[in-house]
Amino acid sequence: MPLNHLETVRRVLGKMTEKKQAQLTYALQQEKPCVLVIFDYTEWSGYPTQFFRFLADFLLGKQQGVRSLPSALSALIYVEGQAFRGRIRISRERSAVYYNSRATYRLPENSFPALNQYWGEMLSAEADQTYPWICL
CA 36, CA 17: separation in Å to the nearest integer? Predict the structure, then answer.
């Protein structure tokens, strides 16, 4: 099945709703970094779609979609997960952290070493893949 990654990006960035804006504003008022975690449990999660790289390219590559992130947001974390035998599994291999270089309160790079990480102009660090899944 062909996947429309741009539609998924639209859905992910659409999470910046009024409710989320209120949470971001609260963190800004507290003068603290703020992270938004997006959990993806779509029917194709678990297939090696490499969406996390597409999102990195959209946010930090030529399109500079990071401009569409609010300055109150320090980082966006995309987590691909799936239900497996009654448990939740998170793919370390296909989840990632995207640091917002325009954030008012920035997080230090490598704040989340268990996940792939991206920051300014597509610089990245890949997580140790010894254990590719985190089971909850």
Answer: 12
